[in-house]
Amino acid sequence: MAEVSQEVKEFMKSSIVTDYTKDIQQYNLGPLWEAIPEIMNHTPKPHAEAYLWSDELIKKKMAEAAQIFTPERGGERRAIYFQNPGLTYRKPWGWASTTQTIYAAVQMLQPGEKAPSHRHSQSALRFISEGTGAYTIVQGERIFMEEGDFLITPKNLWHGHEHVGTEPMMWMDALDIPTIYSIGGTFFEPYADGLQQPDIPDNFTEKRYRGGMVRPVGDDKYTVAPLANYKWDRTVEGIKGLMEFDPDPHHGFAVEYINPSTGKSANPTLGTRMQHLPKDFHTKALRHTHSTVYHVHKGSGYSVINGVRFDWKKGDYFVVPNWAWYEHVASQDTYLFSVNDIPIMDRFELEQQQAYDSNNGHQTITGEFKAAFR
């Protein structure tokens, strides 16, 4: 809105205005003339805050959860989600919001455990942070998971998990729960027979797309999940190819997981990337409309988010909210997995980005974030 005069400001604070506002509010009506300056900002002002959850905190609380909750005792998914402190006012349960639009969590499956199949109107994805020996079964396909793998489960597909290995396994979950809840589109259905049984060969989609940038004939038509598992070694190979050239000043060496039948994001509503930052690489700062949740898969370093330094290392998770200035610095060779809401922003044609022009693209550090249990 245009700048208002002092006379108008004083009038808006007068009793004739405030009394009238109170009067209409009792009838569940609202005064746009007062609301519009706060709900139609010049630039995005998300309630989500920049935050970091340490690996030490996650490991401690997940070990405690493993002693309390099992799939048989009501813990259908032993998952602890990252609740953004700026969004706790959302009821119920903060909408499980890690950003304005994204839910992110850590899930653990112990050897011998089964997580029963279900389906829902939210799209899901997984990034395997530790362990091996478990599989997820999606629409009758068992997909065996290994550290560094990225898997998708788009909306309304049956999916469950079983651990047939010997060591605990942990992964990152991300879904569009806050988005779907906010628009009233939530549906959930448990599978009647517990864990769905396989009816097609194991790792079927992965084998069909083993050729990389060649796809099976007949897959030119849109399929929601033609490739269910993006293997770590092939992701690294893609990044190595980029490393023969100069890094992107804002992202280093980064790749995006895509749907091979469309070329768009692998998950319809959530974007995903793997980013390699060589030791001592310092990205230039930028900001954009979309929000991002990062998981430090390998390495260590720090990020500066709106002037505040966030130190991170392997196993940590951190959030960059919408329209927040940020830059990364790698103390070691680093791999960052990230989830963003670019597909949502693109649907509404809202995505914008802006580079930080001052100080050769680097912010001045004005504070430091202290993570719990570090």
Quick take:
The chain is of the alpha+beta class and 374 residues long. The chain is built from eight helices and 23 strands.
Shape: globular
Termini separation comes to 44 Å
Number of domains: 2
Number of strands: 23
Which residues form runs of ≥5 with pLDDT under 50? none
CATH class of the largest domain: Mainly Beta
Main sheet attributes: strand count, strand direction, barrel closure: 6 strands, antiparallel
The CATH homologous superfamily of the largest domain is termed Jelly Rolls
Order of strands, main sheet, comes to 1-19-16-21-14-13
Radius of gyration: 23 Å
Give the second-level CATH assignment, the architecture of the largest domain: Sandwich
Q: What are the SSEs and their pairings?
A:
Elements (H helix, E strand, L loop, with lengths): L5 H7 L2 H11 L6 H8 L11 E3 L1 H14 L10 E3 L21 E7 L4 E7 L3 E7 L1 E7 L2 E6 L3 E4 L5 E5 L5 E7 L1 H6 L5 E3 L13 H5 L20 E2 L1 H11 L10 E4 L14 E7 L8 E3 L3 E7 L1 E6 L2 E6 L3 E4 L5 E5 L3 E7 L1 H6 L5 E3 L11 E2 L6
Parallel strand pairs: 18-23
Antiparallel strand pairs: 1-19, 2-3, 3-10, 4-9, 4-11, 5-8, 5-10, 6-7, 6-9, 8-12, 13-14, 14-21, 15-22, 16-19, 16-21, 17-18, 17-20
